[in-house]
């Protein structure tokens, strides 16, 4: 029985420049903590190796501290074997980076930097497809079809890139053949690049990132525990939870007179998990001015309890009735301004961006007048 953990896309050293400064350090440290969590899962489940399918580092020029601390942490978990594949973010084009990695790596780390068979267990051979550049322009797994391995061994593939349109940023020429496992006689093809878990077929999987870094996939961080009893046997795949932060999007479909605050409260996660949760609230449909300002205030009130909480109103339209505008003013300059903003926000002849600006300005004016009145 061969048992290993399939992971990748650790993106160590990611800067998270779009996040508040006090959160960036916590997110970067969580990424480093992935190494220890993967090792713990390996020990608990009897896995002898961890295959990292590319983008172990976020850039081709990680700082010496990021690089050395990662290697030291992997070395701490010997004799567990780590196999590190270059991805598109840390490709072989970064010659200095990979030379520095080899110079300071502990003995339990193997760098899969050549397209040639690697023996990772007495009965298992790995066929890696390291990324030569950020955009190689060809299917780097093609060599696996003709790769010779001893009879009776388990054949594994390790690659980073797109199958069909799954890639985060790949071009069409980079697409990996979806049936590569069949063509190359692989018992398992471990893929990286797509940050959400995807089962392409029984023998080909994306593990997803073990520590999410965006709202796009809306799934918890995980790795895959892979067990293969013998050559040609169907792999047994078990998902392992690895993320320390949760990135979630809550969709709130609303009708004009709905109580948006109550709808929000019903969907917010429990208190103890909030500090480790990055949450995007995405209302859609229509809401009156008062409902919009109440929803924004409720989100602002809850935000300090979360690692990060944001409100995305891009799919939320504003309904406005005469009594809403009366709360701004019944006459005079403010009412004229409100009428003009409402007309501009509903003018289909205007570009969508201009209508949105007018809509947001009307909501702000309403909110401002509401605060004064209270």
For this entry, give a set of tags.
374 residues; 31% helix; elongated; 6-stranded mixed beta sheet; alpha/beta; 9 helices; 2 domains; Purple Acid Phosphatase, chain A, domain 2
Any overview of this molecule?
With 374 residues, this protein is α/β, with parallel strands linked by helices. It folds into two domains: 2-241, Metallo-dependent phosphatases (Purple Acid Phosphatase, chain A, domain 2), CATH 3.60.21.10; 246-373, no CATH class. The protein is 31% helix and 24% strand. The protein has nine helices and 16 strands. It has helices at 21-45, 64-76, 95-104, 180-183, 260-267, 289-302, 322-328, 332-345, 352-373; strands at 2-7, 49-52, 81-84, 109-111, 118-121, 124-129, 154-160, 188-192, 198-201, 204-206, 222-228, 236-241, 246-254, 277-288, 308-311, 315-319. The strands form three sheets. Strands 4-3-2-1-11-12 form a six-stranded mixed β-sheet, covered by helices on one side. Helix 8 runs antiparallel to helix 9 (352-373). The protein is elongated. The termini are far apart. The mean pLDDT is 91.
């Amino acid at each position: 029985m061969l048992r290993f953990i399939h992971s990748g896309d650790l993106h160590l050293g990611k800067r998270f420049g779009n996040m508040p400064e006090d959160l960036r350090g916590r997110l970067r440290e969580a990424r480093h903590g992935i190494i220890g969590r993967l090792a713990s899962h390996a020990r608990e489940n009897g896995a002898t190796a961890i295959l990292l399918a590319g983008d172990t580092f976020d850039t081709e020029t990680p700082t010496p501290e990021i690089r050395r601390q990662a290697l030291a942490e992997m070395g701490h978990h010997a004799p567990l074997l780590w196999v590190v594949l270059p991805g598109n973010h840390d490709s072989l084009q970064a010659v200095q980076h990979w030379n520095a990695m080899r110079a300071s790596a502990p003995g339990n780390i193997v760098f899969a930097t050549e397209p040639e068979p690697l023996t990772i267990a007495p009965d298992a051979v790995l066929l890696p497809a390291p990324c030569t550049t950020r955009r190689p322009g060809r299917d780097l797994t093609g060599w696996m079809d003709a790769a010779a391995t001893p009879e009776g061994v388990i054949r594994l593939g390790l690659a980073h890139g797109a199958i069909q349109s799954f890639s985060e940023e790949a071009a069409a020429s980079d697409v990996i053949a979806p049936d590569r496992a069949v063509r190359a006689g692989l018992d398992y093809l471990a893929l990286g690049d797509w940050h959400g878990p995807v089962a392409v077929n029984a023998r080909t999987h994306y593990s997803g990132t073990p520590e999410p870094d965006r709202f796009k996939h809306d799934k918890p961080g995980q790795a895959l525990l892979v067990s293969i009893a013998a050559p040609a046997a169907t792999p047994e795949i078990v998902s392992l939870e690895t993320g320390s932060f949760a990135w979630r999007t809550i969709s709130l479909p609303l009708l004009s007179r709905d109580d948006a605050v109550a709808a929000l409260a019903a969907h917010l996660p429990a208190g103890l998990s909030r500090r480790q949760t990055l949450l995007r609230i995405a209302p859609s449909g229509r809401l009156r001015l008062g409902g919009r300002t109440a929803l924004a205030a409720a989100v602002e009130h809850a935000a300090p309890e979360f690692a990060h909480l944001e409100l995305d109103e891009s799919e939320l339209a504003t309904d406005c009735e005469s009594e809403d505008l009366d709360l701004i003013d019944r006459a005079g300059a403010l009412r004229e301004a409100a009428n003009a903003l409402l007309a501009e926000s509903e003018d289909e002849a205007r570009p969508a961006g201009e209508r949105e600006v007018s809509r947001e300005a009307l909501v702000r004016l309403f909110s401002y007048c509401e605060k004064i009145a209270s």
